[in-house]
Q: What sequence folds into this?
């Protein structure tokens, strides 16, 4: 298994500002994922962030809005840019340890006013 | 398109057994996962099935039929702490996880 931490755990931000979410893992992992989960909804994959390559974004998500960094095998950041109330959600990072094991961080609860 | 269906909500009684069904239509198949998510918390891994049949892990069992595009999660001897959402997810041919909307399980005393 892996221990994953996220910062901040929650934040309230104003419209038009940006927030960077950090994800730290206690072991080296190749595959990291960023998800969004809106209230009462299931998980939506934003992007896959593998170390040494550019993040791969899913349909509906673009790099200008959600830039991602992956500087090493234990850390990644997701920035939510130019926020609007529609970005209010829980943002989760996860890591893939083996072909079928995916572990999630505790999430960042974002409210945009 | 890709689709995962599971009931929105189920109610069961403490000590009883409940079966949560999941049907899927995906482009390719590389395994089916069940996750548990308590309110306000991150999902936690419960099970993985890639071959047909039943996988048992303590009070929880998961079944898969690939030909029917069907899985279920069976929870026995229900406890109040089992109240949570249960997410079904399928890994497609691109090794991406396609998530169901989740089943909210309510346990009553």
A:
């Amino acid at each position: 298994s892996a221990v994953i931490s996220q910062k901040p755990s929650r934040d309230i931000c104003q419209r038009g500002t940006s927030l960077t979410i950090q994800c730290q893992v206690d072991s080296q992992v190749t595959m990291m994922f960023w998800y969004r989960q809106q209230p009462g909804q299931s998980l939506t994959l934003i992007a896959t962030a593998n170390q040494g390559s550019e993040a791969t974004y899913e349909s509906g998500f673009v790099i200008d809005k959600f830039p991602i960094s992956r500087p090493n095998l234990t850390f990644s950041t997701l920035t939510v840019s130019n926020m609007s109330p529609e970005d209010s959600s829980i943002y989760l990072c996860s890591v893939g340890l083996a072909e079928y094991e995916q572990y999630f961080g505790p999430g960042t609860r974002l409210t945009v006013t | 398109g890709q689709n995962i269906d599971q009931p929105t909500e189920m109610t069961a009684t403490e000590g009883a057994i409940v079966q949560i069904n999941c049907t899927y239509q995906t482009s390719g198949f590389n395994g089916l996962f069940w996750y548990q998510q308590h309110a306000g918390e991150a999902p936690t891994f419960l099970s993985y099935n890639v071959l047909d049949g039943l996988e048992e892990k303590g009070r929880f069992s998961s079944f898969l039929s690939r030909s029917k595009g069907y899985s279920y999660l069976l929870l026995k001897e229900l406890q109040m702490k089992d109240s949570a959402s249960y997410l079904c997810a399928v890994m497609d041919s691109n090794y991406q996880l396609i998530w169901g909307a989740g089943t909210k399980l309510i346990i009553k005393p």
User: Anything to note?
Assistant: Chain A touches chain B at residues 41-45, 92, 99-107 (CB under 8 Å). The longest strand of chain A covers residues 89-98.
